Amino acid sequence: MRHIILAILILLSGSYSLRSQSLSTGNKRAIGYFNEGRMKYEYRKNEDAYLMLSKATEQDENFYEAQLLLGDVCSDLKKYEEAIKHYQKAIIIKPNRFPAAFYNLAGIEMEIGKYNDAVMHMTQFLGNKAISKELRAKGERRFNNAVFAREAVAHPVPFTPKNLGAGINSPYNDYHPSLTVDEATLIFTRMRPADAETDNGGSQFEEDFYISKRENLEWLQAVPLGSPLNTHGNEGAHSISPDGRYFYFTGCERPEGYGSCDLYISKREGDKWSKPVNMGELINSGTWDAQPTIGPDGRTLVFTSRRAGGKGMADLWITYKRENGTWTLPENLGDSINTPYDEFGPYLHPDGKTLFFSSEGHPGMGGKDIFYSKLKSDGSWSKPINLGYPINTKDDEIHLIVSPDGKKGYFSSDREGGLGLRDLYVFDLYEAARPQPVTYMRGKIRDAKSMNPVAADVSVIDVETGEVRATTQSDKQNGEFLISLPSGSSYAVNAEATGYLFFSGNYVIGKELTPKDEFKVDILLSPVEAGSKVVLNNIFFEFGKANLLPQSKVELEKVFKFLDKNPNVRVEIGGHTDDVGDDASNQVLSEKRAASVVEYLVKLGVDAGRLESKGYGEKMPLATNATETGRAINRRTEFKILPAK
Known about the structure:
Elements: H1 2-13, H2 28-42, H3 46-59, H4 64-76, H5 80-93, H6 100-111, H7 115-126, H8 133-154, E1 162-163, E2 173-179, E3 185-193, E4 205-215, E5 218-219, E6 223-224, E7 235-240, E8 246-252, E9 261-269, E10 272-273, E11 277-278, E12 289-294, E13 300-305, E14 315-320, E15 331-332, E16 343-348, E17 354-359, E18 369-374, E19 385-386, E20 401-402, E21 408-413, E22 423-428, E23 438-447, E24 457-462, E25 468-473, E26 480-486, E27 489-496, E28 503-509, E29 518-525, E30 533-535, H9 553-565, E31 570-576, H10 583-604, E32 611-615, H11 628-634, E33 636-642
Parallel strand pairs: 23-29, 31-32
Antiparallel strand pairs: 1-22, 2-3, 3-4, 4-5, 4-6, 7-8, 8-9, 9-10, 9-11, 12-13, 13-14, 14-15, 16-17, 17-18, 18-19, 20-21, 21-22, 23-26, 24-25, 24-27, 27-28, 30-33, 31-33
Helix pairs in contact: 2-3, 3-4, 4-5, 4-6, 5-6, 6-7, 6-8, 7-8, 9-10
């Protein structure tokens, strides 16, 4: 802090500097102590400086320069109450000599929670018309922080953190957590003591990834994530995709790197992680790129970077994964998120619309505070909201993650009572700050004939908007997948693999989720051969009519893409009804509905000669017609492969 204070004093005072001979005292002994104390301070010998400057003020308590510099020294020594006393004395002696004295005094008052006093002294500082434009901007920022902190402390938010326990935390630093969407796997970074193989510039510590599984609501003993993710160097901030299949992390000073720190990616197959791959020079710059967070769609990546073109020193940037697997040129998240100061630690919740991050530029408690912002319908981000006190304090709060249901926050802290230097904690996040709840689908995809696992692409699409909300790929070794399902909408869940018919499911997720809202499915994919068929669960018609509803667009485009990829396939679109009404009417309705689907596909560009439509009426039910659930299953559109001509 000493250089900032010295720069402010020099800038504000013009020709004045601490080396000036025009001091405010004629006491030679006081001047001698002052000069010696000043030199000790410049050489960072704070205790010696404190002793000399104290002697100077004892010789002459009205020695303005000694009182002012002693305030600086006491501040650096964290003797805050004494620093306040010396600043106040200097202001009494010469109230208009250095407006920066008010600025520094307010900063110390914020450090010890005297926010009313800080607001008062910052008001006095900003009232001086002589301060520069640059210092006025800094002053307004400190004033806004003081006003915010005063109100935040007066209206605290609920916050009762609980240590995650000895299974997770060690005697060392444990931090940067990430969580899968089922909240069953936790990965975090641990700074452990270096060993004989550590290779990170002679440091006494090495950063590695650790993993823990949760069973019966308890976290099991964390173990190293192992090679190839852990190396003998340092592995930093990371993000695991909601399905636990993709791992994005920060690697620094690596031979293949483009800057000081780069982003890397690894994929899990079974229990094995692939060798990490640098995400390339399009994503990584020649500076510092770190702290990635991957969205639930598997195609949205937010990270922190110091690259050129930002709003401040460190900004948040965003990139999107294209259909061909490449990434777009990163874009700055813009003025609503980024400031001329630092933004760090982004976390994009599995709802895909709530971003938590740390900032020292938005009004807060004085250091880096945690904020959240919501993605708006036009693609911009809402004005960030400070999570409040005591979640945020005068210290730096960085990297919060939130559980899929939005109810719990996980973070790292060095607070008293922990098991190590920094521990991981969990707390109940108050309702106003919660993101949209998310549940999940756990499934297994297999070949319908051989029952062998199939590596298939799985996607969740909002039926109303057509927006892809989540994507993943089933594990080629066991066919398993895990995918997030945000609350409050109807979703088309599709699975597709080369050589197979696609799977089409429809799930309606209420706004209020319960612990029972977990979906387990066993998906059987049929090979593309004559007779294979699939129910198109996301084709919707007007009640009692053959008019397609707009919500059918997502499914119809999926059918079109399949036919486009398989140009030699001929298909039958079959319409089916329940048994409500007379047989003849149901037969006609089923025929018209099948014809409507064929007509739509032809308009999209499918050769009409490849399509046939057929109505089956109520003749081929899949379930009982005695219940509404059964009747809904029977009202369906089927897609069947026809023999080649």
